[in-house]
Amino acid sequence: MDKLVIEKTSQAAQILKEKGIDLWLTFVRETSAGGDPVLPLIYGNASLTWLSAIIIGANGQKTAIVGRFEEEAARSTGAFDRVLSYDQSIRPDLLQVLEDLNPNSIAINISKDDVLADGLTYGMYQILVEELLDGTPFVNRLISAEKVISMLRGCKTPIEIQRIKSAILETELIYQNTFSFLRPGLTEKMVAAYMHEEIEKAGLSHAWTPSGCPAVNTGPNSPMGHGEPTDLEIQRGHIVHFDFGVCKDDYCSDIQRVVYVLREGEKEAPDVVRQGFNIVLASVKAAFEMLRPGVAGVEVDAAARAVIVDNGYPEFMHATGHQLGRLAHDGGGILGPIWERYGDLPLRPVEAGQVYTIEPHIIVPGYGCIGLEEDVLVTDTGAVYLGNPQTELYLAQ
After folding, report:
1. Residue-level pLDDT at 227
2. In terms of residue numbers, what domain contains 85?
3. Residue 296's beta-bridge partner residues?
4. Tell me, what DSSP letter sits at residue 129?
5. Residues 74-81, mean pLDDT to the nearest whole number
6. CATH label of the domain that carries residue 89
7. Is a pLDDT exceeding 80 seen at residue 225?
């Protein structure tokens, strides 16, 4: 029995009811070769080989239609009222279920803006429309499941929130150990290797591609972004910036931290570095205070971005934050500006239960990047930190 799948499939039925959508159909095959991103939430981590359908109705009925040899795996989730298996063709069972329910709307996993709601491949779409549903009234009742999947991925259940918090705790422990290890003369690659060892010792996995997790940037010449640590050496007078997360029990953290390496004779960072840190901290706070149900992501982004720009720094060329969950970049809506590359995602309202990152940054000329990233949960009344936010500039000797 998979408690998380039971939780999420029940949540999906409630979302369908709220959205006025009769039925949600997730249609997959050979998922070990790259399955639908939503499948782990509504089926678990087991693979599906033949054409398979996970069908959830607004009436609460949940059905899995799978190949004969995966019938027991589907039953073992404990999530489905009916598990139907077949040998030669999925079509008879699929049409019978649809005829029994007779839905006016059938949501399928296609989306222009949300990659995590776009799991139905074009080939599978052709099979569904041109072969399985051809000649039936159901082919004209298909709509996008984008709203369903966005809410399902975004609005976390208690089990999901606890798993994210556990991943954050592990991340904070590794950061603590890394800051004790940090010293001038080490390269970015050496520090990253140490953090990889810590992940392995803890029995964890990386929140994104290991070669760039962690990102370690020392000083003003380190390339920023989704790159890999370099052979640059940590020197006194450098800001060292980290972007790092782990995955534990299938759920991720994503946290950025900054350390200033003191020069000989310094007891604190230079004014320009401390001022820069306080500006980024104020930007995080502005987003945090704006983050509440009903507010559009673009409004949260604007609040954070204004703090940076109003203090004379160039605006950061990325969103203020993204959703967090099974992936480091999870869910639909983002805390971002109205840029073409983001589609309508910044216009989507924030909802209770969503987990977001808040991650503004600036570059302090001659010193390096100050970027903070905190993981926060949206509640009915506002936001709460899921970990311990960095509120002071860490110093290294």
Report:
1. 83
2. 3-153
3. 349
4. I
5. 97
6. 3.40.350.10
7. no
Token output for 255: 């946290």
Cα–Cα separations (whole angstroms), residue 74 to 60, 71, 86:
17, 5, 13
Mean pLDDT of 267-291: 98
DSSP, res 316: P
The values of phi and psi at residue 196, to 5°, are -60, -40
pLDDT of residue 224: 81
Residue 341 DSSP label: G
> What pLDDT digit, counting tens, does each position of 104-137 carry?
999 999 999 899 999 999 999 999 999 999 999 9
CA 202-207-210 angle, to 5 degrees, is: 85
Burial (CB count within 10 angstroms: exposed 0-12, middle 13-18, buried 19+), residue 45: exposed
Do you know the residue count of the chain? 397
Give yes or no: residues 118 and 267 share one domain: no
Match 């989730």 to its residue by tokens.
77
Query: Both 8 and 125 in a single domain?
Result: yes
Q: Which of 111, 136, 153 represents a domain boundary (last residue)?
A: 153
DSSP letters, 204-253, are -EESS-GGGSSEEEESTTSPPSS----SPBP-TT-EEEEEE-EEETTEE-
pLDDT tens-digit readout, 334-384: 999 999 999 999 999 999 999 999 999 999 999 999 999 999 999 999 999
Q: How far is 34 from 118, CA to CA, in rounded Å?
A: 13
- pTM, two decimals, is 0.93
Contact indicator for 92, 100 with CB cutoff of 8 Å: no
CA distance 142 to 197: 48
Which pair of structure tokens corresponds to residue 133? Answer: 């549903």
| Of 131, 153, 175, the domain-final residue | 153
**What φ, ψ does residue 318 adopt, rounded to 5°?**
-160, 170
pLDDT at 34 exceeding the cut of 90: no
Q: Which residues, in sequence order, are bridge partners of residue 55?
A: 25, 63
Q: What is the mean pLDDT of the chain?
A: 97
Angle between helices 3-19 and 146-154 (to 10 degrees): 130
Q: Based on the number of CB atoms within 10 Å of its own CB, is 91 exposed (0-12), middle (13-18) or buried (19 or more)?
A: middle
